[in-house]
Amino acid sequence: MSSLRVITLGCSKNTVDTEHLLSQLRDSYEIVPEGEFADVLLINTCGFIGDAKEQSIETILSAAELKKDGLVGRLIVFGCLSERYSAELPEEIPEVDGWFGARDLKPLVEALGCKWRPALESRRHLTDPRLPYAYLKISEGCDRRCSYCAIPLIRGAHRSVPMETLVEEARSLASAGVRELILIAQDTTFYGLDLYHKRCLAELLRRLSEVDGIEWLRVHYSYPQDFPEDVLEEMAANPKVCRYIDIPLQHIADPVLSAMHRGVDGEWTRRLVSRMRELVPGVALRTTMIVGHPGEGKAEFEELLAFVREARFDRLGAFTYSEEEGTWGAGHLRDSIPARTKESRLRRLMEAQRKVSLEINRGRIGTETRVLVDSFLDGILVCRSEFESPDVDGEILVAYDPVSFRGRDPESLVGSFLRVRITGADDYDLSAELIEI
Predict the structure, then answer these.
(1) H or E segment and range at residue 420
(2) 357 forms bridges with which residues in the sheet?
């Protein structure tokens, strides 16, 4: 049996694509870890912004050197970068044996000598089966036209995955030990519009919560415009739906939101944040912001800074504006803000958020919460509550003590839920002590 290795770059959506691909190939290929010889090396690339594109190119060039040294047989690249630059890349990197786009999983499977099996479309080969959580991609593509974003150019129009397929995929993941599903898409709030002619995210959450073994459902990547209120009602009523919303707001100043083509203004955004907290008491809000977008003068940035201090988001990420060819912004807006100014604004914004995060975390000291154990490392159980998402948020760290845990093997606790009391806090992580297994 030939050997195959995959390198996955970029976001969690790419991870899901890789796992679907491997489910189609695992009966024909031995999937080997990093460092071992592979007859075929696949690289799933990211092409979203400049840094991600550079990382993808560097990874491909490094793999080409492995091929030259005889450590790799065939080198095949797929995903967002090759979708976006399908005309240029084959000429620039001839060492690659095949290029496939982000929407070419079936042709890629066939190019590897396998037949695409529709019966496996709801199956995944988990790239890290030790983790008690998995991402569930509920739709592909995007119908939004944010001026800065290249995703619609890469991934195409919005296409929902049928609800029955997602429920079957959730059952399969639960049987593999997954306890938490993190719903992802380019815009999760659009789910169902194409298939069912209405927004169906709340109904999907209800259906998924009925799957035995799934204890937590978490919603990511929710667009603010026309946010479906029934999702908030389901979150408040259904104990399996984490009181957590990832909603990229991107900015608060009206001129910038207008230039971004976000479809909302600052007043509407403030009302939405207030409404979320009203309907889901205690909800954790995570957002992302872009600094240095065309139209962001000093006044607009100061408004953003004040909003972050006022809104007190539990989690916030930010990045500087990057002009992306092919987008509306690249063709119509002048990227005139110096890189030094962008970086300065980014530092100021993240420092403001650091102080907010520290205050919020300190306010949790002494409270009790239910946590999921993600891993055991150097005597510490690495956990999360419903208010922390993996990879992007902080963690709750619980020191393992054989007496308190009644001699339980700490590795056996991974994937279990514990009751803990928060005892300490820093900017992003928390420490806790065990109350009950």
Answers:
(1) strand 417-425
(2) none
Rounded alpha-carbon distances, angstroms, from residue 37 to 21, 96, 99? 20, 17, 21
Task: Write the CA distances from 29 to 4, 282, 356, integer angstroms.
Answer: 6, 47, 49
Share of the chain above pLDDT 90, in %: 89
Other C-beta atoms lying within 10 Å of the C-beta of residue 204? 26
- For residues 13 and 184, the answer to whether their CB atoms sit within 8 Å is yes
Q: Are 171 and 178 in contact (CB under 8 A)?
A: no
Question: Taken in order 373, 375, 379, 380, is the CA torsion positive or negative?
Answer: negative
DSSP-assigned beta bridge partners for residue 420:
369, 434
Beta carbons of 25 and 4 less than 8 angstroms apart: yes
Per-residue tokens: 187: 């815009």
pLDDT exceeds cutoff 80 at 135? yes
Mean pLDDT value of segment 54-72: 93
Q: How far apart are CA 105 and CA 68, in angstroms?
A: 26
Nearest residue to 190 (alpha-carbon basis) of 144, 125, 122: 144
Please tell me whether residue 433 adopts helix, strand or coil conformation.
strand
Residue type, 415: G
- Position 49 pLDDT exceeds 80: no
Handedness of CA 334, 337, 340, 345 (dihedral sign): negative
How far is it, in rounded angstroms, from Cα 358 to Cα 346?
18
DSSP 161: P
- The residue type at 297: G
Predicted local distance difference test score (pLDDT) of residue 191: 98
CA 240 to chain centre: 20
pLDDT per residue over 392-433, tens digit each? 999 999 999 998 898 899 999 999 999 999 999 999 999 999
- pLDDT bracket for residue 7 (50, 70, 90): very high
Quote the mean pLDDT of the chain: 95
